[in-house]
User: Fold this.
Amino acid sequence: MKSNKFLFRGFASHAILTIWSISIGMLLYFTIISSFKTNKTVFKQLWSLPEKLNLVNFQNAWSNLDFGRYTFNSVFVVIISVTLIIIISAPASYALTRMKIRFAQPITFFYLAGMGIPFQLLLIPLFKIMASLNLVDTLPGLIIVYTALSIPFTVFLLTGFFLSIPSELEDAAYIDGCNEFQTFFKIMVPMATPGIVTAAIFNFIGLWNEYMLALVFTTGTKNRTLSLGLYSLYSSLQYTSDWCSIFAGSVLVIIPTTIIFIILSEKLISGITLGAIK
Assistant:
């Protein structure tokens, strides 16, 4: 009975994942091929390949989206935010899991509690704080908000990786004369590199696609990110029925995350596997 139960659960989970993957693949396929079509053929030939590559859609999206400025804003904000998140979260995770710190467990639960608070509840107090510091509608202000709200999840993720590292390596480093900082930077960080890369990828993808916080904390057009720019592109082109340019803008936005995932996919998979083993 137990074997049949586990078999049914495995079949059900694989079926759900297969249906989900096919649905996402079809949406991506439709978005990509539609970005090369004309507005006359996009709905007449819904799933067929375009007879001719229409690159004018990308030109329209680029000019209407102000892609250069918004790309720079997104790249700057996301890279600085992810760097700060890792710099803060990695030592905190190491200290909470490997060092004998008083109240380490309550502090860990404190971080976990931060994951359970919807960030929508924090929008008003965060906005008041950032406004009092004159950081609303600034890229540094958005970086601070992204970093602060991403630390709890990253600490939770990295604690699993540091716990999976054998303690014998740490003991050997102490025997060789390493102090806490040397052990962390020379032993623990190289061993936890797959986990750190995994956390960086998760944060990069999440912050690259983030919309709500960017909408609240960037009130003007100068400091908009790509997610806000894509919505403004949709708002400006929906009444002209230029759907192909909207699809082209969507393709331009998803290209960076796709490239990063392809390059670092092996690190991501190895990191997830490492974090699951304790």
